[in-house]
Write a structure and sequence with these properties.
- The structure is a single chain.
- The protein is an alpha+beta fold.
- Helix content is 12%, strand content 25%.
- 26% of the residues are buried.
């Protein structure tokens, strides 16, 4: 009887361990790539360029100097008016919510830090304005292991001004 009880306890423990490992916090989260409107290409001087991301809770950061965007880059808050040839690079980042009982907040991101590459697409049609890369892969070497951030791929959109 004791042996049967020990086997049942062991099975219950193993099943509980399996469910704990499959919690939603263990699943990597994907952040959609930013989309530029209008699509990359020729536009009239004074055109306003909009950037959006379909993943809820993301912030978009962009550059116009050729550098890859980071959280230190300009945060997108409103359309940007261009008057000369311009190349944008943008990334969507889902900010973390700490999973630290000391600060009383609950995590919405529980998988490893993700850092995207440069996809070079500036619109939904997949027009290539740069080099292609992989998104949502690899760990960020600067991640301290405490709070996770998810990132899209870096997207490039180049605009020229119509004559």
């Amino acid at each position: 009887m004791k042996r049967k009880l020990m086997i049942i306890v062991a099975i219950v423990f193993m099943v509980a361990s399996l469910y704990a490992c499959k919690s939603p916090q263990m699943t990597p989260e994907t952040v959609e790539d930013p989309v530029f409107t209008p699509a990359a290409g020729k536009v009239a001087a004074g055109t306003e360029i909009s950037i959006k991301c379909d993943t809820p809770g993301t912030d978009i950061y962009y550059t116009m100097n050729g550098d890859a965007p980071t959280e230190e880059s300009t945060k997108y808050t409103e359309p940007v008016k261009i008057t000369s040839a311009t190349t944008f690079k943008a990334i969507a980042i889902k900010p973390p919510v700490a999973d630290d009982p000391e600060n009383g907040e609950e995590s919405r991101n529980g998988a490893p830090q993700r850092d995207g590459g440069d996809t070079g697409t500036g619109n939904d049609e997949g027009e290539d304005s740069g080099s292609a890369g992989e998104g949502n892969e690899g760990e960020d070497p600067e991640n301290d292991g405490g709070v996770d951030t998810f990132k899209s791929s870096v997207v490039t959109a180049s605009y020229t001004i119509e004559d």
